[in-house]
């Protein structure tokens, strides 16, 4: 028995030795992904999958079919990692079935009529398709996305064409093949389908080509690993990877993030947002398989840092900016032209529990001998807004005489209140939300007590798609913001940074 055990140890040691001696970079991943893909995207997706396998070692198992057919399989099987749909209606159906998560656009497609080279039947209008001598092939709207889209666009015209059609098949590639083989004279297909078949040309008809649909890669909720699934999805969309192959094969690539096996997203955030987003950002990074560098500070400091970097060619320039209030977006609006007003935070006067100094209003902060904490107006949104509020009420000079502390963020002021070095401080309610047993909050005038936090993705960020997915992730977790003391506003539409409404007393001077 001892000899056998010794031999096993020797074998294990030899195995470990071979592993240790393996040259760096030759290790291959043994993971695999199952991808359900609309048949019309078969050629580019096969080519992209082959390149991805070479680069990463991850095996891609592809299953092709009509989009409707694939959705039926997904509903029943509840397995797989990605679903690649040819149209947006199919994404809506997949969402109703609750089988997909993240969506990454791949290509933009338009319906056209495919005919043999030279257009021997002289087809130029939809009416020509109804001629007796034209053999028409149509996609089945129950199975193929192009059929479903065309039926929606054409309305009653579709019914007439369906009665006339010589054949109706479940995938766009099958009816295109019919035209190539001469079995049909014309077929309704995607514009991206035609270049995939030698000997075909596209007839553009305004009724069809004015309509655009996005083909997209989606992450299935049944995915064994979101990291691997999202990695392949990012590869599919990257302009220099999958995007280049889509373009080469006649597709209009939708555009995606620059390729990186593990992208780094840089997030600048005002300090007020830290309690709500710190854990969420890390969860997102783990889910996506990326790294996120988060810089929390006063927004004045953050804007100054961006100004110092001059332009976005600096690799440290943030991809995402989550400000403490809209008044600190204008200084960097050229880089962040659009924002979502995600949350709202109330500004209050924080005092020790029981309010020993009897403070009831901002005017009380001017009491002789009172030690008042304010944020620095040059460094932080809270300081800038506090100064603006005091000026608008003619209290700035009298209160500033008592300002024994001016710091970059409200957290510092809260700590000083806890240690007894301050009698009162102007802070966000969120700064004391987790310590309500130690503090009381004195409200400010309603028209001056509100800070609104805008979330913006840099317009030329190489990781803008990831930035927008981070926004979606935050929006899906509004409970974390409400728990931290924020008022939720994230269900509203984005606004142009140049159109943000900023009170006159808070406008940058």
Summarize the topology.
Blueprint: H1 2-21, E1 32-38, H2 42-56, E2 59-65, H3 67-77, E3 82-85, H4 88-96, E4 100-109, E5 111-116, E6 136-139, H5 145-154, H6 156-164, E7 167-169, H7 172-181, E8 186-190, E9 200-203, H8 206-209, E10 213-220, H9 226-237, H10 242-248, E11 252-253, E12 264-270, H11 274-288, E13 291-297, H12 299-309, E14 320-322, E15 338-352, E16 372-375, H13 381-392, H14 396-400, E17 403-407, H15 410-419, E18 424-428, H16 429-432, E19 439-443, E20 450-457, H17 464-475, H18 478-483, E21 487-488, E22 495-496
Parallel strand pairs: 1-2, 1-3, 6-7, 6-8, 12-13, 12-14, 16-17, 16-18
Antiparallel strand pairs: 3-10, 4-10, 4-11, 5-8, 5-9, 14-20, 15-18, 15-19, 15-20, 15-21, 15-22
Helix pairs in contact: 5-6
Shape, per Cα inertia axes: elongated
> In terms of structural class, how would the helical and strand content be classed?
alpha/beta
What do the pLDDT scores average to? 91
Query: Would you tell me which CATH topology of the largest domain applies?
Result: D-Maltodextrin-Binding Protein, domain 2
| Number of contiguous helices | 18
Number of domains: 3
- End-to-end CA span: 85 Å
User: Could you tell me the strand content as a percent range?
Assistant: 15-25%
User: Briefly, what CATH class of the largest domain?
Assistant: Alpha Beta
Major sheet summary line:
11 strands, mixed
Q: Give the helix proportion (percent range).
A: 25-40%
**CATH architecture classification name of the largest domain:** 3-Layer(aba) Sandwich
Number of DSSP E strands: 22
Structural Rg:
30 Å
Low-pLDDT stretches: 1-30
